[in-house]
Write a structure and sequence with these properties.
The structure holds two protein chains of two kinds. Chain A is α+β, with helices and mostly antiparallel strands. Chain A contains three helices and eight strands. Chain A has an eight-stranded antiparallel β-sheet, covered by helices on one side. In chain A, helix 1 packs across helix 2. The termini of chain A are far apart. Chain B has two domains: 70 residues, Arc Repressor Mutant, subunit A, CATH 1.10.10.10; 33 residues. Chain B contains six helices and three strands, in the order H-H-E-H-H-E-E-H-H. The radius of gyration of chain B is 17 Å and the shape is elongated. Classes of the chains: A alpha+beta, B alpha+beta. Chains A and B meet through strand 1, strand 2, helix 1, helix 2 and helix 3 of A and helix 2, helix 5 and helix 6 of B.
Chain lengths: 156, 106
């Protein structure tokens, strides 16, 4: 089965393109990006602020079980065209990844399906490559944390 | 390309990632690895089999014992590849789709 989410990341370029088709009408996909409560659900983060309008800004924050903040991100919305396009910046705080520019294009395919094209531009090629490898590093980290939990439990 | 897909299936499982991490610090026998998990021993054996088949772990006979150690070359290949990044977005988008389908029915 062909994967639903596709990523185009050419070697030596400081950008990448993510595309995905959804079994959803266009309006619902757009809503999933603009309503704070819904964004929080699928991004798995607390939405501290999300002003879905031109020159609006947003802030995400995720805490672990102990209440320590493990992820903080923010950005500013530059273009906001309902059901068509969002251009915004995205910055993961306290990381070396810099500020990235994100261009989201929303397209209707028919009444029940739509397509998202997410074009992300990084400051440097090195930063893009680091971000690309992040989920793998996190996966190992999560495994490590779990392992620590198990070991701690054994010691008790 | 089948092999490559298998590698990512292998690391998609949190127990298998924990095993990789354990073995990364030192070569271990199946028994020693299993003693680190609450999971039943045959389940750990199955995980070790998958990791070995994908060449993420290598077996080494030492007397009567078989030691597992990490295959650094293969791990590097995995780390360089963008598949985990794609999976992360695919998971997010699947969640988005599920949530909005429910929203539609309301």
């Amino acid at each position: 089965m062909e994967p639903k989410t596709k990523i185009k990341a050419e070697n030596g370029k400081q950008e990448l393109v993510i595309t995905r088709e959804f079994d959803l009408p266009l309006e619902l996909l757009f809503k999933a990006y603009t309503e704070p409560g819904i964004v929080a659900q699928w991004m798995g983060t607390k939405v501290v602020k999300l002003e879905s309008k031109k020159q609006g800004s947003y802030q995400f924050e995720t805490a672990d079980a102990k209440g320590n903040v493990v992820f903080q991100a923010n950005g500013v919305i530059h273009e906001f065209s309902p059901n068509r396009k969002i251009t915004r910046t995205f910055e993961m705080e306290n990381t070396p990844f810099g500020v990235q520019l994100e261009i989201y294009e929303f397209e209707s395919l028919n009444e029940d399906t739509c397509k998202l094209t997410m074009h992300v531009i990084y400051e440097t090629v090195a930063q893009r490559d680091q971000v690309l490898q992040l989920p793998f590093a996190q996966g190992i980290n999560m495994a490590h944390n779990r392992l620590q939990d198990i070991v701690t439990k054994l010691k008790q | 390309m089948n092999l490559r897909r298998d590698v990512f299936q292998a690391i998609a499982d949190p127990t298998r990632r924990a095993i990789i991490l354990l073995v990364a610090s030192q070569s271990m026998t199946a028994g020693a690895i299993a003693s680190n998990f609450d999971t039943a021993r045959p389940t750990v054996s199955k995980h070790l089999q998958i990791l070995t088949e994908c060449e993420l772990l290598k077996q080494e006979q030492n007397g009567r014992e078989i030691y597992y150690h990490i295959n650094a070359t293969k791990m590097k290949e995995v780390a360089d590849f963008i598949e985990p990044f794609r999976n992360m977005w695919d998971d997010r988008f699947n969640k988005l789709e599920t949530i909005m389908k429910k929203f539609k029915r309301k």
